[in-house]
Write a structure and sequence with these properties.
The structure is a single chain. With 991 residues, the protein is of the alpha/beta class. Helix content is 42%, strand content 19%. Among the domains are: 204 residues, Alpha-Beta Complex (Isoleucyl-tRNA Synthetase, domain 2); 52 residues, no CATH class; 150 residues, Isoleucyl-tRNA Synthetase, Domain 1 (Orthogonal Bundle); 103 residues; 60 residues, Orthogonal Bundle (Helix Hairpins), CATH 1.10.287. β7 and β8 form a beta hairpin. The chain is globular.
């Protein structure tokens, strides 16, 4: 191959498809279990099949792929298992909306199997799109191992896990208040509820006493309760007071007549009730009356009060959050009068109607605006209702689950605490590995969640998902252990019910049971149940496969902070309980991408960025590098979003943040092309004695060695931004700006010096491609193929493995002997000298340009005055200093007198010894004129600065001016000061 065959410009779209096809054809992402090789495994956080991937997915998967490619190059037995999640509520909801829009039908217009088939079709469409996006991003997944949370392998794992937990008493059925989503008609777990601040009211309702009482000489005929949800008063079964309330001794034990329904309910005492205190810092105390309406069926705190006092539980809502008398409410009173009929009203309509009824009947004492936090469904985004319902639960509060999870935490990240955390001190069980979070602050989130955890509601009233494998029948029936069932029993209003869980693989038994009158539970499992098994269901569990033994526990999980409780916690508990080991040891929590205003990217806000648009515009490598460069340890990352119209007329969202990746890709291509132009005639390499190489060769080898060390350390510690910055600085600054320029004269000179430069150049380019590959895989693989054709054998002091595709080539090995700090200090001094002469030349040409004079290609003369320790080094490097510093003649004279009208800069070595760089300017510019110009501008700047400071110190201006105006003035002042300092420095350099 000749370098002329290599395109002069890098066009990602011409490269990426072919390179990915090459990887797939060579089966380079696939791994087989091999106990003799160190394993490395990541299971991908499975994207929901609800929609295409967004930039957050691109961010997360880029970081995972960096780890996977790095460990593959280390020689680890590396596997990245891809897959998708069925996402029960989310997927069913989007399909319901689509069917309603396109067919005008609702889910209930279909048989269950018919509607599930429509969801399956949606899943197939979006799963293919998602996997295609992952490939476009360059993700090196083992595609032969692709899993779906409802495929046959995962379904078997779900059935087996459910059966074991059920058999061990860790799954049970209970009637209690759940978080109910009226929009989707299903229960939600606590961590599926998002709290939102809402502007509402505290309504103060009067409840008449059946008999007036006298308190402190005053007749009292009612009590006043404060509530934000008046519609629930229909289900009140008590009014509670704090026993420390002075009025309690007069009122506890009395009764009130509940308005509208005319129900007699008692006044009870309970320590939960907040005492009224208008001067309290607690908002609840400020708004409280001292009387709490107790509605056990519609408030979790009231439910607990009801249990303590054995209160009736009256449910006044239907599952769709309308007022209903079909779910346990019988004493309707006036609630179904012809003129005032609440039945069938939406909860918010009923709220308004009830408040109006209290107002008309002089029972509304007050209404105060109140901003408070209300739980909303994380999927439908409607306010949830605490709702009394029979549901299935996992007893995660059991020490075998939550306690075990806490005991796996790394000692240096565990904070001794009260509650469940104390279980850790009482147990002897230890695991080989320990769970560590990166950044470590997220360990606190994990710990706090488990210390305060509540049992997990796992049943969902949906059609899409894993149907709960439990059958029920009235009466007491025995276990059929030998036939694959396990039974529990429950008392109901209609008698004893037997619940039988059927073990997977006993499908024939299911049919027999149903013929005997057993009825399968219609609900499905919470999506997170199958997701909790993902680290081992993807590897074939419950079968003890070779894959399971090789790659579970895995090594790393990359995910977002919002699912530490939803997913990370549950994977840890399930893996520990079912396999007696951690699912992974490292949990990396990446930052959240936001737009320039700090808002979460979303379709509704129109600020989302499509990864495929960025790939089309900039290339996958540019996107990947830019995202890795942003992956700092901060909590959130801002990415300013702007609209851009493409040539085909489409308008997309993009961001200038991706330009750094594009620029680096272009620079890498151009620098590699230049390097290979100088390698076309390279001879077969021979081992080099590094100590005998010229200074710049030893310097670049030293800098490269440290770069590899730093990159290795940063990737191992999940410091992606730091590793990206390290390679950027080395490649752009050390390699391109300095080394390539340094060796140009040697390439022209020929002979042995050229041969050595070529060998070091080939080595450096080889190593740059290797360390950059995990972040920018496409361009590096393409350049690797070119390099292998132009310079197939490369070595420094020994042979290097160059005959494999880059994706499976070894990661560079460092050698402490290659690091030479003395050489680096010497080169740094020369660089400072060259920068000084370049700066002087640039300033001279700026002045000459203003005066319409021709620019100088080189400075006629530069003089260095300083100690021998510095000047001796400069004498050795005179040729390169003149060449790179744009100097015709360099004079070393420690005793020289500075000519009048010279520019002088000081350079220092690592020990603080100074030398002066002197450039006579008398024949180049009018120095006196330039000095006068600078002095005049400095005087003008002093006036501007004084006026600006005076204005900003004016308290009247600061108090009245908009913040934006004040900030503009402050920025302007800083700009003036910066200009003043630069001119002062320039004036000082004139001698």
């Amino acid at each position: 191959m000749k370098i002329s065959d290599m395109p002069s410009q890098y066009r990602p779209n011409d490269v990426e498809t072919d390179i990915y096809k090459f990887w797939l054809e060579q089966n380079l992402f696939h791994a087989e279990p091999d106990r003799s090789v160190k394993p490395y495994c990541i299971v991908i956080p499975p994207p929901n099949v609800t929609a295409a991937l967004h930039m957050g997915h691109a961010f997360n998967n880029t970081l995972q792929d960096i780890l996977i490619r790095y460990h593959r190059m280390l020689g680890d037995n590396t596997v990245w298992i891809p897959g998708t999640d069925h996402a029960g509520i989310a997927t069913q909801t989007v399909v319901e909306k689509r069917v309603l829009k396109e067919e005008g039908k609702r889910r209930t217009d279909f048989k269950r199997e018919e509607f599930v088939a429509k969801i399956q079709a949606w899943k197939d469409e979006y799963e293919a799109r998602i996997l295609g996006q992952l490939k476009a991003m360059g993700c090196s997944c083992d595609w032969a191992r692709t899993r779906f949370t409802m495929d046959e392998i995962c379904a078997r794992a779900v059935r087996e896990a459910f059966f074991q937990l059920f058999k061990d008493g860790l799954i049970y059925r209970g009637k209690r208040l759940v978080n109910w989503d009226p929009a989707t008609g299903t229960a939600l777990a606590d961590d599926e509820v998002e709290m939102q601040e809402i502007d509402g009211f505290f309504w103060y309702l009067k409840y008449p006493l059946t008999e007036p009482v006298v308190i402190d000489g005053k007749k009292v005929d009612h009590v006043t309760v404060a509530t934000t949800r008046p519609e629930t008063m229909l289900g009140d079964t008590a009014v509670a007071m704090n026993p420390r309330d002075p009025r309690a001794k007069y009122l506890v034990g009395k009764e009130v007549r509940l308005p509208i329904v005319n129900r007699l309910i008692p006044i009870i005492e309970d320590d939960y009730v907040v005492l009224a205190d208008a001067n309290s810092e607690d908002a609840k105390a400020q708004f409280a009356t001292g009387f709490l309406k107790v509605t056990p069926a519609h408030d979790p705190n009231d439910w607990e009060i009801g249990r303590r006092h054995d209160l009736p539980v009256i449910n006044v809502l239907a599952p769709d959050a309308t007022i209903s008398d079909k779910h346990g409410w019988t004493d309707l009173g006036e609630a179904n009068d012809d003129e005032f009929n609440l039945i069938g009203m939406d909860r918010y309509e009923a709220r308004e109607a009830i408040v109006e009824w209290f107002r008309k009947n002089n029972l509304l004492e007050d209404a105060k605006p109140y901003r408070h936090s209300v739980g909303h469904s994380y999927r439908s985004h409607v306010a949830i209702e605490p709702y009394l319902s029979d549901q299935w639960y996992v007893k995660v509060t059991d020490d075998r689950l939550a306690g075990a999870a806490l005991r796996t935490m790394a000692d240096d990240q565990y904070d001794p605490a009260t509650g469940c955390g104390q279980m850790r001190r009482k147990q002897d069980k230890e695991w080989e590995g320990k769970l560590k979070f990166f950044p470590e602050r997220y360990a606190k989130t994990f710990q706090t969640w488990h210390e305060n955890i509540r049992d997990w509601c796992i049943s969902r009233q949906l059609w899409w998902g894993h149907q709960i494998p439990v059958w029920s029948k009235f009466g007491r029936h025995e276990n059929r252990c030998e036939h694959g069932t396990w039974c529990t029993y429950a008392e109901t209003d209609k008698g004893i019910v037997t619940y039988a869980c059927v073990k997977p693989g006993f499908e024939e038994l299911e049919k027999v049971m149903e013929s005997e009158g057993w009825v399968r539970d219609p609900d499905v499992l919470d999506t997170w149940f199958s997701s909790a098994l993902w680290p081992f269901s993807t590897l074939g569990w419950p079968e003890m496969t070779k894959e399971l033994e090789a790659w579970n526990p895995g090594n790393t999980l990359c995910t977002a902070r919002e699912i530490i409780t939803l997913w990370v916690s549950r994977m840890v508990m399930m893996n520990l309980y079912l396999l007696d080991r951690l699912p992974f040891e490292n949990v990396y929590i990446h930052a959240m991408l936001q737009d320039g205003q700090g808002r979460k990217m979303s379709k509704s806000l129109g600020n989302g960025v499509d990864p495929l648009d960025i790939i089309e515009k900039y290339g996958s490598d540019a996107m990947r590098y830019s995202l890795a460069y942003l992956a700092t340890g901060t909590q959130d990352i801002r990415m300013p979003v702007k609209k851009e119209k493409l040539d085909d007329g489409r308008e997309i969202n993009t961001s200038e943040r991706f330009e750094i990746g594009r620029n680096l890709a272009n620079k890498l291509w151009n620098a590699a092309r230049f390097a290979m132009m100088n390698l076309e005639d390279a001879e077969a390499p021979t081992p080099l004695n590094i100590a005998s190489l010229v200074r710049e060769d030893r310097w670049i080898i030293s800098r490269l060695n440290q770069t590899v060390e730093q990159m290795t350390r940063h990737i191992e510690n999940f410091e992606f931004a730091e590793s990206s910055a390290v390679i950027y600085r080395f490649f752009w600054n050390d390699f391109c700006d300095w080394y390539l320029e340094w060796i140009k004269p040697r390439m022209r000179q020929g002979g042995q010096t050229k041969k050595q430069a070529q060998q070091v150049l080939a080595f450096c380019l080889d190593q740059i491609l290797r360390v950059t590959h995990p972040t920018m895989p496409y361009i590096t693989e393409q350049l690797w193929q070119y390099l292998n054709k132009i310079c197939p054998k490369r070595m420094l002091d020994n042979d290097m493995v160059c005959d494999r595709p880059l994706v499976v080539s070894p990661w560079p090995v460092t050698d402490a002997a290659r690091t030479n700090h003395t050489i680096e200090q010497e080169i740094e001094l020369l660089q400072n000298l060259i920068r000084a002469t370049r700066d002087i030349r640039a300033n001279v040409n700026c002045i000459r340009s203003a005066n319409k004079d021709k620019s100088l290609m080189k400075l006629p003369l530069a003089i260095v005055r300083g100690p021998a320790e510095i000047t001796d080094l400069i004498v050795e490097a005179t040729e390169v200093v003149c060449d790179l510093g744009y100097i015709e003649t360099l004079k070393i004279d420690s005793d020289t007198t500075i000519p009048s009208g010279s520019s002088v800069k000081v350079v220092s070595d690592h020990r603080g010894r100074n030398a002066e760089v002197i450039v006579p300017l008398a024949d180049l510019i009018d120095v006196s004129q330039e000095r006068a110009r600078i002095e005049k501008e400095l005087a003008e700047l002093a006036g501007h600065i004084a006026r600006s400071q005076e204005r900003l110190s004016n308290q009247n201006f600061v108090a009245k001016a908009p913040p934006k105006v004040i900030e503009e003035h402050r920025q302007k002042l800083e700009e003036l000061k910066t200009r003043r300092d630069a001119l002062t420095q320039a004036l000082a350099e004139f001698k």
